[in-house]
Amino acid sequence: MPAPLTRRQFVAGTTAACTAGALASTGSTTATAATQTDAATLEALVDDAARRALEEHDAGGLAVTVAEPDSLPLAKGYGHAFESEDVPVDADETLFSVGSVSKVVTWTAAMQLVDRGRLAVDDRVDGSLTTVDLPADDPITLERLATHTAGFELRGRYDSVRRLDNHRSLEASVTAHVPAQVYSPGELSLYTNYAAALTGQLVADVTGDGFGEYVTDELFEPLGMADSTFAPAPDGLVPDPETATEDALRFYSTVPPASGLHATATDMGRLLRAHLNGGVVDGERVLSAAAVEAMHRQWYTPHETLDGMAFGLFEESCGETRLLTHSGATPDFSTDFVLVPEADLGLYVAGHGAGASAAVDDVVDAVLDRLVPAEPTRPPAPTGTPARADRLTGRYRSVSAAENTSYEKLAVGLLSGSPIEVRVADSGHLVTEQDGETDRWVEREPLVFEHVDGDERLVFRTADGRVTHLFRGLGAYTPMSAVDRLSVQGWLALAATVGTLSGVVGWPAARGWRRLRGREGPPASAGRARWAVGGTVGSLAAFVCAVLALALVLPMTGAPPLFSWPPTWFWLVFGLPTLGAVFAVGAAGYAVAAWRGGWWSLAARLHYSLVVATAAVLVWLAGYWNLLWV
Question: How do residues 208-245 score in pLDDT, each as one tens digit?
Fold first, then answer.
């Protein structure tokens, strides 16, 4: 897999609940269905891949299902069940947390309501939602939710808790904080758990049933998915009776439509069959063939040359074969859900353990390399310098970090992946560097580049002659300025801290020294001016201390962790840096007055101005990361 930006990294983006993983995308191919591989060969292939994956990665267990429209040619477990070393994985019985693959069920349920005439993909969803008030400026449709193009900023809080007794309802989560729309609907695909959570609440509001109840009655029972459940801690997830589920788990989803499903591999194989067989499994229909076809068609792409989004599923090109995929991850589990409609093939792999993500990827790659082979095609060497090369170079960061209006911006900035550095080589190749990986690209048409291995495309979007976005698949990046760089801000913060401490610590020390020597103290104006700076620094320091204290103390009281489900009064804490900003304005006023009135000595005025400037930098950093009320 040469591409650093993988499906899991796009899904993470996220949130804090999604991690990295990959599915191969290589050159030209002719799909080969599982029916063309005899059962013994298929089982040997999966056995070898699963056992090697368990040996090479720190994974405890795997479950693999290969699906066809009318059957499951293979459903098998490897290793041991979660937190139960004496219980082997059984594809028919062992539960796995499927993470974000839960969204496939949610979008299927939503399309079922469309199929039955109870929803329309292009109608405003706020007309059907009774529990959530959405912004009215840019109306959101079901289509925009299913393609993650509603424009929502990334929201990590209120999505999960670490203790079962802190669990909250879906309604409580989606109403606790409605994320801002930072893009117009349809402009960009910005993956969020909130889009799926809101869709689940939409299903509940339209049907009058709880989301879990509706899905159980209308999907799981007809499809024979008897062991699938959205319960936060289902019996059987930890089969060993001596291990308490609550002690074993570290993740309880409070947005089950996005990340709360638990299922066996065989059950997920039946969902694959429904998508491969026109909505029918063993004579039970959950979707019309037209609705399945609608789910599988492309609904959004940032550029005609790039893979895009189906209805809740990600497109991936394996040569000339189109895959529809979704991956999922929680702290202990990893999953991959893959459809190859033109080959009548489905694949589901689930794993648990620290190395589950890599183990699942290895199995998926091994199976697809055999069943959906592809011969890579390489583009010709560049014939010159790319068009507008000087405008393309620079550093780009994920739009998730660039556009966030809440105090989660810092966490998103740290977790949304490394920036992409872009330059043009003397050979005419476009060169990108990210996460230590260097890739070279050849321009196929203006602003459209193909990887030298022929397996991926890179596209730039421009407006008014300037580059506004870089797209690597669905992953969208925006140009960074120097002050956006964490390294630059780190040095600024260090220099500003030293500058302010030279006053906050130096002034009292100098005053004490003067008293010790019997000299007069500073004039009253200097004292008031210095207290203004002290108020700035003290308020900012108090804010940091308050956040750290709450992060440590709240879990001790049995409350949810601060950054997963903050208390309703947490906003009051942000009054501290805001107060610091007010003090900084006052300090700046004293600095101006000192220069105009010729207060103090020249050296004292220069030093005071330096300290005020560095304190202002700290306030600016707090504002940059949305830590001020304003």
Answer: 999 999 999 999 999 999 999 999 999 889 998 777 66
Q: What is the pTM of this model?
A: 0.90
Q: What is the mean pLDDT of the chain?
A: 89
10-63 residue pLDDT tens: 333 333 333 333 333 333 333 445 545 688 899 999 999 999 999 999 899 999
Q: What is the sign of the dihedral through the CA atoms of 502, 504, 507 and 511? A: negative
**Are residues 553 and 545 in contact, defined by beta-carbon separation less than 8 angstroms?**
no
Q: Distance between CA 627 and CA 573 in Å, rounded?
A: 9
Question: Quick one: pLDDT at residue 518?
Answer: 61
Determine how many CB atoms are found less than 10 A away from the CB of residue 48: 12
Listed in sequence order, the DSSP H helices in 57-186 are 102-115, 142-146, 170-176
CATH 3.30.870.10 is right for the domain spanning 24-375: no
Instruction: Find the distance separating the first CA and the last CA of the chain, reported in whole Å.
Output: 44
Q: What is the DSSP letter of 76?
A: E
Residue 387's CB: how many other CB atoms inside 10 A? 13
Residue 359 burial by CB count (10 A; 0-12/13-18/19+): exposed, middle or buried?
Answer: buried
Strand extents, DSSP E, 105-251 = 160-161
Burial class (CB in 10 A: 0-12, 13-18, 19+), 555: middle
Q: What is d(CA 434, CA 337) in angstroms, rounded to the nearest whole number?
A: 27
CA angle 229, 235, 239 (to 5 degrees): 125
**507 pLDDT higher than 90:** no
What are the residues facing 421 on neighbouring strands? 395, 433
In the chain, % of residues over pLDDT 70: 91
Identify the sign of the CA torsion 353, 358, 360, 366.
negative
Rounded to whole angstroms, the Cα distance separating 112 from 295 reads: 10
Yes or no: say if 282 and 78 are a contact pair by the CB < 8 Å rule.
no
DSSP codes, 281-315 = ETTEESS-HHHHHHHHS--B-SSTTS--B-SSSEE
Report strand pairing: 394-398 vs 61-67: unpaired
Which helix H or strand E contains 401, and what residues bound it? helix 399-402
Mean pLDDT of 348-362: 97
pLDDT tens column, 579-600 = 999 999 999 999 999 999 999 8
Query: What tokens does 319 get?
Result: 């040569």
3-state class (DSSP) for residue 334: strand
Rounded to whole angstroms, how far apart are CA atoms 568 and 341?
47
Give tens-digit pLDDT for 155-171. 999 999 999 999 999 99
Rounded average pLDDT over 411-418 = 81
Q: How far apart are CA 511 and CA 533, in angstroms?
A: 16
